[in-house]
Write a structure and sequence with these properties.
about 260 residues, alpha/beta, Rossmann fold, seven-stranded parallel sheet, 6 helices, 12 strands
């Protein structure tokens, strides 16, 4: 049996153009909706699969305001069995160290064999929380796994985490309890059905407050990468451009002589 805690975060939907706030500290969410990152959606899916295979449970947790509750209910709608809101007045005041400390309080108050997180924060790009959490708990950590399973071994249950490394596919076997951060691509997340959403509305959300005060991220500012330059080549005008178009199509392999 594997009882799993999945950490998710309500973030601005940055599938389109990304804008920053005037102070450069956060993604400007005034003109976009909110979502959960694909990494975390995959983490929820993997947790549901592992819990189903081992007869365990899945609890989702997020740090935020009551506006984050709908994201918790989305996870319950696809198979999670419980949800926890670590309620704070200003989530932006919590840096990676603060988030890891608050999540550690949740883990230590329960009996979670495996903690899954997204590989990085979709809004700020922080890759820190999973590793900081593992150090807070004194647990082994695997970063950037695409799939996870739990297997028995002579020394006790282990988590098998598979991901892509510099030399190709890498497989790690670490004893439980453990922390694993998930990168999208290993599984296809399921999406809430209407019956699932109706069921999720009835699940109580456990609420708690963090014990420690936030110290902030120490971030100077976020910086957007420069736009990728594009080049335009004029092939000609009218029928005279036809030979040049044929040459381009041949270079692309669309046409052969």
């Amino acid at each position: 049996m594997a009882d799993i805690l999945v950490c998710i975060k309500r973030v601005p939907d940055v599938s389109g153009e990304v804008l920053l706030t005037d102070d450069g500290q956060h993604v400007d969410a005034r003109h976009v909706g909110y979502t959960v990152s694909p990494h975390e959606l995959c983490a929820v899916e993997l947790a549901v699969q592992v819990a189903g295979d081992t007869g365990g449970s899945v609890t989702v947790v997020t740090l935020g305001t009551d506006e984050s509750v709908d994201k918790l209910r989305d996870a319950v709608a696809v198979g999670a069995t419980g949800a926890i809101l670590v309620e704070v007045d200003d989530p932006d005041a919590f840096g990676p160290r603060d988030v890891a400390a608050a999540l550690a309080e949740v883990v230590q108050s329960g009996s979670y064999d495996l903690v899954l997180l997204g590989n990085d924060a979709a809004d700020s790009g922080d890759f820190q929380v999973g590793i900081r959490l593992a150090y807070e708990l004194g647990r082994p950590v695997v970063n950037g796994a695409s799939t996870v399973t739990v297997e028995d071994s002579p020394d006790g249950p282990v988590v098998v985490a598979v991901g892509e490394g510099p030399e190709g596919q890498e497989t790690y076997r670490v004893p439980l309890p453990a922390v694993v951060t998930i990168r999208e691509g290993g599984v296809e997340p399921r999406y809430p059905s209407v019956p699932g959403r109706l069921k999720a509305k009835k699940v109580p959300i456990e609420e708690r407050r963090p014990v420690s005060e936030a110290t902030g991220s120490g971030r100077v500012r976020l910086v957007l990468p420069p736009p990728t330059p594009s080049a335009v080549q004029i092939l000609g005008e009218g029928p005279e451009a036809a030979p040049a178009v044929v040459d381009v199509l041949e270079k692309l392999g669309v046409l052969t002589r």
